[in-house]
Amino acid sequence: MASWHEILEETTAPSIDFVRRKYLKAFSALTGRNVIAYYSGFLTNPNQSSGILDNDMNGFMNAIHGLDRNNGLDLILHTPGGTVSAAGAIVSYLKQMFKEDIRCFIPQIAMSAGTMIACSCKEIWMGRQSSIGPIDPQFGVISTGEVIEEFGEAIKDIKKNPMNLPIWQIRLSKYPPAFLGQCQKAAEFSKELVREWLMTNMFTGDTASKKKAQAVVRFLSDHGKTKQHDRHISAIEASKIGLKIEMLEQKGRDAIQDAVLSVHHAFMLTFSKNASVIKIIENHLGHAVVNCSIVR
């Protein structure tokens, strides 16, 4: 593996784009599979919108064009999440292009809608440093799980203590009309998608596929269990809830661990060297769509 420092030194001569593409190509050569990296610069540029959006479809279309789709796909994800509908459209497209032969690699973080995309793959590769997160959707910065939980508490408390009704009216007045219904529908849509994806790929052929899928979805969507939307769920935790997790640190996988982390370091250094870059969708052939913010 090339360390962060080694890659940093390497980028002083050729452009960072050259270095990034070098390691993507090396990863593909190692696995014999197509590679697409989806990277958001949310850690180095948190004030910019770098989540999963409908416009990302153009990046995936560009990355897939010209690939031999019979070789499957290794998808490297680093994202804070995004919209459920955009994630659903991307998964649908990838499944049409590569059937069910998609593996997901998470070198560091794939939260929310990123976790949903990971769950659509046949297996998820993570390291000790990697994290996924809850899949309850958000409206802005408001988690649907928090809203549903708060209304549930209100109902229980009012039944037990009717005199508290005025207090709850004040507390819940911060939400617009029909907001609870919107949250419930969004949460259910998220659960339906992930449940179906798990059953038709990761757990396909398993006689207990429905039961396993429900267990995974139940945990990832239960705000009462996950406590907060940005909770980091480790590879060990993800494996315990039933997801098929392949550990990068497993004996005999040094080469693939080195290849994945070298790609990760190259992408993260790209963001740190150029603050205007907020998202990159790139394949092992060097075909990329790079989204940049307006620097003032």
Strand order of the largest sheet: 10-5-3-2-1-11-12
Oligomer state of the chains in this structure: single chain
Mean pLDDT comes to 93
**Strand-pairing-aware structural class:** alpha/beta
Helix-strand topology string: HHEHEHEEHEEEEHHHHHEHEHEE
The strand count comes to 12
Helical content, roughly?
A: 40-55%
| CATH fold-level name of the domain at 4-133 and 232-292 | 2-enoyl-CoA Hydratase, Chain A, domain 1
Q: Can you lay out the helices and strands and say which pair or pack?
A:
Layout: H1 4-10, H2 16-31, E1 34-40, H3 56-64, E2 73-78, H4 84-98, E3 102-106, E4 109-110, H5 113-119, E5 123-126, E6 131-132, E7 138-139, E8 142-143, H6 144-160, H7 165-172, H8 179-202, H9 209-221, H10 223-226, E9 233-234, H11 235-240, E10 245-247, H12 254-273, E11 277-283, E12 288-292
Parallel strand pairs: 1-2, 2-3, 3-5, 4-6, 5-10
Antiparallel strand pairs: 1-11, 6-9, 7-8, 11-12
Q: How is this structure best described in words?
A:
The chain has 296 residues and is α/β, with parallel strands linked by helices. The protein has a domain at 4-133 and 232-292: 2-enoyl-CoA Hydratase, Chain A, domain 1. It is 49% helix and 16% strand. It is built from twelve helices and twelve strands. The protein has helices spanning 4-10, 16-31, 56-64, 84-98, 113-119, 144-160, 165-172, 179-202, 209-221, 223-226, 235-240, 254-273, and strands at 34-40, 73-78, 102-106, 109-110, 123-126, 131-132, 138-139, 142-143, 233-234, 245-247, 277-283, 288-292. The strands form three sheets. A seven-stranded mixed beta sheet has the order 10-5-3-2-1-11-12, sandwiched between helices. The longest helix is centred in the middle third of the chain and has 24 residues, at 179-202. The radius of gyration is 20 Å and the shape is globular.
